[in-house]
What does this fold into?
Amino acid sequence: MLLGLVCRDVAAAPKIDVVHLRNGDRVTCEIKKLERAELTLSTDAMETVTVHWAEVVDLVSRREFEVELSSGVTYFGSLARATSGQLMLVAADGTTQALALAEIIGLTPIGSSFWRRVDGNIDLGFSFAQADLETRWTLNSSATYRSPRYRLKGSASSQLTVREDAERLARNTLVVSANRLVGKQWFTVGMGQLQQNEELSLYLRALAGGGFGRDVSQTNSRLLSVFTGIVVTREHFTDEPAATSLEAMVGGSFDFFSPRDDNVSVSNDVVSYYNLGGEGRVRLELQSAIRYEFLKDFYWSLNGFESFDSAPSQDRKGNDAGISVTFGWSF
It folds into this structure.
């Protein structure tokens, strides 16, 4: 499971890269990656630091990098000194090409270890109400691995509500997905999911399937992706026999990260499922989060979720929604 990928490569690479900043500073470092407008650097004096991409005016490195543009085009090569606001890419055959820094959304050293390609987060929330002795726990975590052709992601979320005068209610979701890039901004997707929701009398839902998608818009301030496909779903509701169905899925994600600093980010993921058995049933799953980083790698997050079922049985609820505030750490 990808959620446990928190180890780091302890081998320190030599600090042979140079980054020039808008304020005139020159940083000798090891360039780790550029993602979501954040350039991660490893330095001897300051250890690992992040610099917003808008503050960078030039990069130099003898190492080979994968460079991704907002158009979806990918280049490979080392980095030579260029005029301010550009990146001079030197290919293996010695040819050079100048790229505008504003068009670059991804920068990854070729040969980076598996662990350095993994990003993730984990956050925890807790609330207590004395009036009805209600205690609520919230846990969210995710990890993503990126390579030139693949994106692997695992995520888990859990909400547990305990009250003195009622039975406890649990909501648990585990999702794993694998995307393979097949062209400019196009990708195939395979996914699996396990879900439990006692508020909706859902004992267990398991689904697996696949499809294709497209990164509609990707810049240094936003990412918009859509996808569609087919999944096989098996559901078991309390006091009902388990049933299997075929569903069409249509979904998307929209992420926004503040263009001038790296403190605020907004993410939204929505997936709708349409039953193909002629029942006319529609399901919807929505996850949203607003995150504010107040200290390096630590953040506060406002999270929201919605689960909707257009055709519940007579004794079941049709939707479940909630909001939580959590404290988290990203890696």
Residues 217 and 224 are 5 Å apart (CA to CA). The chain has two domains: 12-112, 119-330. The radius of gyration is 22 Å.
